Structure formats: structure tokens, C-alpha cells
């Protein structure tokens, strides 16, 4: 984790190609714009927002709420199975 003021320098120096966005929806596009300007080519987006990025940048959204709901389902199913034994 680094300050945003060091973003471009760090991405260039470390030859970083991928970014993980885990920011509020209202900040997601601004952060995506910044990482794209810095040279990022792929974004894993945990923010509940649709991102608009330049051609050549790939975005993969992650539905955190959906994944938590799925996890809760399996936890409850496992608990129900153990009660049957």
C-alpha cells in the first residue's frame, strides 16, 4: 500500500500491470482513471461500480455482495448437514 501521490512512480518502477480496486463506488472511476494513466493493463474491480477504461485495459468485476451471500448459503447448508448426524 502506497500513497496515491506515488502511484505512477511505483507502477513504473515495479513494472506493475494489474491493479485491485477496493474503493467506494464514488471513487472507483477516479482511481481507475489514475491507474490506467499510470500504465495498468488489468483491473480486478471490487467496487460496486461499472468502470469505463481505455481500449487495451481489461476489467474483471467481482460481486462482493453476491460472494458473501454464496458463502453464507454454504455455511448454513453445512450447519444443517451437521445437525442431521
Automatic annotation (TrEMBL):
Keywords: Cytoplasm, DNA-binding, Repressor, Transcription, Transcription regulation
Any one GO BP annotation for this protein: negative regulation of DNA-templated transcription
Protein name: CoA-binding domain-containing protein
Keyword hit for Cytoplasm: yes
Coiled coil: none
Organism for this UniProt entry: marine sediment metagenome
Every CoA-binding domain range: 4-48
GO molecular function terms attached to this record: DNA binding
Amino acid at each position: 500500500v502506497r500513497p496515491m501521490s506515488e502511484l505512477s512512480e511505483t507502477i513504473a518502477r515495479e513494472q506493475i500491470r494489474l491493479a485491485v480496486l477496493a474503493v467506494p463506488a464514488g471513487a472507483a472511476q477516479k482511481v481507475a482513471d489514475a491507474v490506467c494513466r499510470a500504465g495498468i493493463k488489468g483491473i480486478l474491480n471490487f467496487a460496486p461500480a461499472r468502470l469505463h477504461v481505455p481500449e487495451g485495459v481489461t476489467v474483471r468485476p467481482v460481486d462482493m455482495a453476491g460472494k458473501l451471500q454464496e458463502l453464507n448459503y454454504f455455511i448454513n447448508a453445512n450447519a444443517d448437514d451437521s445437525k442431521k448426524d
